[in-house]
Amino acid sequence: MNGIELRIVETLLNKPELIDSTYINTEWFTDIKLRNIVKAMQSLDLQERTLLNIFNEMDNDGSVEYKHLVDIQGGFITSGSFESDVKSLHKLYAQRNLEVSMDVYKQYPKKQELANLSEAIAELEKIDEAEDDGKLEDAIEELQVRLTSGKPTGIKSFEKLDNLLAGGLYGSMLFTIGARPSVGKTAYAVNLARQIVSEDPEVQVDFFTLEMNKREMLNRFISAVANVDSQKLKNPSDLDLLFSEQVSAGIDWVRNHKIRIYDRVLTLGGILSVIKKNAAKAKPDKYVAIIDYIGLVKVNGRQDRWLQVGKITRELKIIANEYNIPVIALAQLNRGVESRQNKEPMLSDLRESGSIEQDSNVVAFLYRPDDENRELVKLSIRKNREGSLGDISYYFDGKYMYFKE
Q: I want to staple 155 with a disulfide (CB 3.0 to 4.6 A). Which of 169, 187, 395, 397 is the partner?
């Protein structure tokens, strides 16, 4: 067995709580037996991680006996090198990945293979970056640049929203947008992504959709950017030439902007893995992740849902800090808001967990103040650590999935 991999598993079997505080991708392991042990531990809650439960949870082909787990647990000496071992494990994986990418590129020197090679190099460079030493030089330099240029840093979106956010979406921000069903939160997120990449085509937006598939999401983007009826896109029959030209223009727009849509990444671990991979190679203020929505994200283990939601928001906030990126997360509101005379949501209406409010830098609510006027939708910012509280009125055309301040 690989020495580093074995030490990591020895430590985890003796200190199972480390599974929750340390990001470990099981793909990093070359030893299949050790990989399966870690995978089984990740699928269990902390109190369930006994040797017997781990053994029963393993995808076991008979190659690992219960005695093997006992022996590995008994080999534990110290956890002093655990963090450096995990980093070394990740680095070894990245080096293997780089070697494979180089070999493939030599054989097939094409655009996609070059992109894979660049990605492998970026991942290795990220691991090699210096540890946080607590010094403020980088933050001071960034502040001086802003003072000299007179321009606030941040990723631009809607003008009024940028003003309330003190300049735009900024690194380390967890921005949660809550709404009741059918208000248009997915459509708003699509328009937010459209506005971001229209302001700066160099920004990469990763859109994680857990409720719709890629085809449905593509239709929404095309409808919003090309001003075409979303219903016609669902049932494209007897199309006239103008409509076909508008759709083609919308497709070209999507192709020419850096928007990726993920409809099969449904777990928290999967979402974090994709964000880490893509954010690592992005330049400052050139990456945004959007998750639609928190309530559908799956978490390993059998915890109560409010504890799972707490883990989701905590991990999203940690990754926003770690990679200095804005993360936008949509959330469902409690049904109670519908029974009140005043339809404006409150922070207490956030569904399933108070951690959403606690972990978010910004919390905003999307709602219709007047049921008779379906075209008026308000975004109400109720928590804002770096900027101002306030309301923004939008015109929303549901036919074209279009929001405008």
A: 169
